[in-house]
Amino acid sequence: MAEPMPTGVTEDRLAPFVTGAGKSAVLLAHGFTGTPHDLRDLALHLAQQGFVVANVRLAGHAQGEARLAASRWPDWWESVVDAYVALRSRSDHVIVCGFSMGGLLCLKLAVHYPVVGAAILAAPLFLRQPLLPLLPLFRPLRQFKGKTAPSVYDPGARALQPDVGRSPLSGLSSFRELMLQVDRLLPQVTCPLLLIYSRKDRVVPFANMARLEARVKSASVRTVALARSNHILTRDYERDEVRRVVTDFAVELAATAERP
Questions:
Q1: CA distance 169 to 25
Q2: Number of domains into which the chain is organized
Q3: Contacts (Cβ under 8 Å, ≥6 apart) of 202
């Protein structure tokens, strides 16, 4: 079982939480090697707008390199499913919002569970890393990929990013498996979508947005192209725009769902 979601917000920016009150809920899921910190400010803003929010911590994340290396995509999937079930038990409607790999998990949720809509932020269907398919060959020789600087251009925000350690090759390989699986599932996605990607993202190519839009069957797909943000767009220069657009999307979906 995934870890229980604590109710209430603490000073620990790496901790998951459930907060807020209302008929509609928003589930937020961070990316691979990420933490709830990446979506914390967005989650708190949504709670202020009258939503119940769950800011999930994916299994193995923000708990040390060994815990992350022992986790795989089914563990991360269990984290979001457990959070979804808990939210659905106390709310009439659930909207999902996923950043990077969390966006893949939210797209998968939209296929297997009823969601009112999904905000997908910089989720990868492909990466320009030619060695990624060869990771299983490297794992016996090397367990971790070296540390990289946080993918945030804003120096003030970059300085606040937590040190998440090295990336386990086993986890990267499992991440790729999830990416391929979700790409196959996309024609089954029918809920309203909001897609936010940045042209300056150095991790996830901007062309992912067009591929995602082309492969889903949603009647409503809104796209937002950012111009100044790196990959962690919820924390970078255009974070206020991201917060505004996601909030407007959620408020509109909730209002539509609550009409008799």
A1: 34
A2: 1
A3: 151, 230, 231
User: What is the phi-psi region of residue 22: left when phi exceeds 0, alpha when psi lies from -120 to 50, beta otherwise?
Assistant: left
Asked whether residue 11 is domain-assigned, the answer is: no
β-strands 144-145, 117-121 pairing: unpaired
Residue 216 region by backbone torsions, left for phi larger than 0, else alpha for psi between -120 and 50, else beta: beta
pLDDT tens by residue, 73-102: 999 999 999 999 999 999 999 999 999 999
**pLDDT, tens digit, 9 for 90 and up, residues 158-203:** 999 988 777 777 888 899 899 999 999 999 999 999 999 999 999 9
Question: What CA–CA distances, in Å, run from 170 to 8, 142, 153, 192?
Answer: 33, 10, 28, 33
CATH of the domain at 193: 3.40.50.1820
Under 8 Å between Cβ of 199 and 226: yes
Residue found by looking up tokens 């009258």 in the block: 50
Write the pLDDT tens digit of every residue in 108-152.
999 999 999 999 999 999 987 655 565 565 555 567 666 678 899
